[in-house]
Amino acid sequence: MNSILKQVQHKLSLIFCLIPLLSYGQFQAKLIPKKGLFVNQGALQWAMGSEINFLNADRKHHEYYFTWWEQDADTTNPQQDILFIGSTNTAVQGTFSLLRSERKIKTELNCTWNKNTPGVCDLLYTRLWYPFFKNATWSDKQGNIIQQLERDFSDTVIIATTPFGVYRFSSSSPFSIKLDTTLHPQASAFSVRAQFIRFLDRSVTLAEKETINRTFSIELIEAPVLSAKKSYQVDQSALTFASSTWEPPAGKLLLLPKPTEWIFTGGFTNIPSTTNKPSDSAVRYFNEVANRYWKTEKHLQPAWRLNKDSLLAGEGYTLVIQDSIQIGYASAAGLQHAIETLGQLLEQKDQQLVLRNGFIKDAPQNNWRGIHMFTGPQSLALHQKMYQQVLQPLKINKVVLQCEQATWNSFPGIHNSISINRDDLKREFEYLQSKHIEPIPLMQSLGHMEWFFKPVEYRHLAINPSYPYTLNVTQKKGKRVMLTLWEEAVELLQPKTIHVGFDEIGMIGFHWPREKEIALFQQQLDRLYRFSKKRKLELMIWGDMGLAPGEAPDACNGINRERAAKIRSSIPKNTWIADWHYVGNPDPGAYSSNLQLWKNEGFRPIASPWYVPENIRGFTLAANQEKAGVLQTTWADFESSEMNMLKNIEQFGAYVLALDYAWSGRKELPAELPYHGVTEWTKRFYRQPLPISPRNGLSWKGKLEFENVTHPTGLSLPNQLSYSLGSIQKIEGIKINFLTTQILPEATPVAILTGWKEGRSVFTIPLLYGRDIRAELDKRPIYVAVLEKGEKEWYYFFNTTTGVDKIELQQIHPAAGIRLTELVLIQ
Questions:
Q1: Three-class SS string for 364-431?
Q2: What does the pLDDT look like over 173-203, one tens digit per residue?
Q3: Can you tell me the distance from the alpha carbon of 257 to that of 106, in angstroms, rounded to the nearest whole number?
Q4: In contact, 508 and 467? CB cutoff 8 Å
Q5: CB neighbours of 413 closer than 8 A, spacing ≥ 6?
Q6: Do residue 238 and residue 336 come from a single domain?
């Protein structure tokens, strides 16, 4: 503690306050479907997942993929979790179970390989978060120290001695260890998330009909005895007045998509302001756009002239900025795009919002520019922020919303924890329609029906009730399922187009002859086509079932050319084909043949890439050349939430690339672009309205170190700071400079910042790893970083001035080891 006090640069009184502490003797574990084993010691989660995968003997085909295939779970016994693996009529059947006691957990795999040919099983017993075990001493069952885990260990027992406990790991069969770590992630390594020690038992050979049994246990041998937590107490005498605690940046965003023509003429045009609320709808929208980026005390009143020009492309526009603004446009969508462009170009100069003088002429190279994403219970607010902050400025005009798990009235049994409320879904559709963006509902309507079969009462409607995945549309009730849901969805949402899925229709649990897939495909698609035609709706499906190997770079689930052609012949002409291919090839030529095939046979293809930048570039430019649409797909779990966005951030940076390439047709390779997709997404999504003039405030600087139970010297450190201001101070924002001692999983809650006024909480801000704070060794910026400020400086501005008399920072992750060096109240 004395070493910390010596580093504090201002007067600091340290008062020891008792704070409740979770017992580190409390050993907790659970098995989660599709994720596996998770282990906690008190509040510290240090084991994160396990896997069991079964493959054919040549390892070319998965027969059971743990993180893809659904598992039923039995958690009725408080001491036991059971996951059910496969079924009697598929390649594998059995259980994966967890037995808990106070100081020991034990998992057991008991499965039978049902095939008449050999196979292999890969077991990942557990994944330990490496940074928490960085200070561990590893030894074998004889007590010999193991210096290098990967090189020196292959046995049934290993012991880890850590500051937060001593653990014995043991298995019924020898296992090995593999490190999957990136200890110093570089600035653009946004897809690097693994920091794991993996315990593996790979390539267990299986004869036909053989049963595999494996046990794995973790025993807590010794837990530390920890003293009660302490709190740092800072009073007003440690604060100093600071001028210019906030200096406004220029703050202009990079203009995206790249416009067709852009000429600077020199100088700036000021944007006048007024106290009068604007009555003109275009001026109101301009203020709405500007207020995403800047805090202004008055309403903006641009001096502009709007000219409707029928010679421009439908979504095209022109801008002439020279003392005033002239906007040319052909449609309401074109005018919206012009105003969004002006918003991106707004910058601060001498405490005034200005635009650089120049001329812009712009129009899209591709008229169908969309994204695909899921929904969730909180997705309405998240998506509206996405649209306003990022997607509308990038001039999107289509959104495919996968919404089968909504709270539909017709099948209440499917409602679950990730269901979007029907009313929220309707509001999202109405919002998009008001912004000249076509919303398209997607509900899987044949395969990928796990969502429908989660309730046991619906499983008799599956092709394989023992392993439900494909809807049995040969049954009378099975035929009605999706018609009923689509009737409800169309009545509620009033779409122009419906996406009915139809990808990978027999991928899991399909025990009928494979040729039966074709008949199911034909019958159900014909049924849904007649449904859509009657209601004058356009129809969209995924395209993989209609392609054979050699006809596209990947995703060819038609198996062979004859079969794929037969499937294509059953698709109604003029259907939209969301043609998904994810190979990372930047060459448009790699994707031209599949787009041409669909076009030549009378369909309307939509190039559908995923998150790999080279895939996006090549496929989107191919779509531009072939006059096909572009749909950027997202597979960031099945719930759309900010947490899942943060854990899969590269998939959202992909939106930026796809919409830029689709609109502008620019040709640079991804590495040659003047931006990175992820940082462009985060700086826009997390952009706060920034004050346009300097601010003074109160400042504290020093160095405080918080608890880190994974390091011997961090066990007894405080986990809270209480910052007493003496009297109520009116603040407009807060700035903090802090780091964690070590890398944590992305989106992990690290701390909570709370403001108090007269004993009442006036704001509470959760601080997440990656979004708000990072480790010193982690070179990636925090996502809320402000333009032209430090990449790890944290700023937060309130909508209105807030009065506080105390600020508290509570570290809630016991291994974060926050190092706080500055806290500033911006007034």
A1: CCCCCEEEEEECCCCHHHHHHHHHHHHHCCCCCCEEEEECCCCCCCCCHHHCCCCCCCHHHHHHHHHH
A2: 999 999 999 999 999 999 999 999 999 999 8
A3: 54
A4: yes
A5: 455, 457, 458
A6: no
Q: How many domains does the chain have?
A: 4
Is residue 83 within 8 Å of residue 96, measured between CB atoms? yes
Q: Which regions in the chain score pLDDT beneath 70? A: 1-25
pLDDT at 24: 53
Q: Which residue has the tokens 């076509």?
A: 438
- Domain check: are 55 and 110 in the same one? yes
Taking the CA atoms of 731, 732, 734 and 735 in sequence, report the sign of the dihedral they define. negative
The amino acid occupying position 536 is: K
CA distance 396 to 93: 46
State the CATH number of the domain containing residue 743: 2.60.120
State the residue range of the domain holding 308: 261-362
**pLDDT tens per residue across span 94-152:** 999 999 999 999 999 999 999 999 999 999 999 999 999 999 999 999 999 999 999 99
Residue 27 is predicted with a pLDDT of: 86
Residue 252 covered by a domain: no
- For the CA atoms of the chain, what is the radius of gyration? 29
**End-to-end CA, the chain:** 33
342-379 as b/e: b if 16+ CB within 10 A = bbbbbbbbeeebbbbbbbbbbbbbbbbbbbbbbbbbbb
Residue 139, helix vs strand vs coil: strand
Query: Is 340 found in the same domain as 480?
Result: no
Q: Is residue 255 part of a domain?
A: no
- Is residue 256 included in any domain, yes or no? no
Cα angle 648, 651, 656 (rounded to 5 degrees) comes to 135
The partner residues of 542 in beta bridges, in order of sequence, read: 578
pTM: 0.95
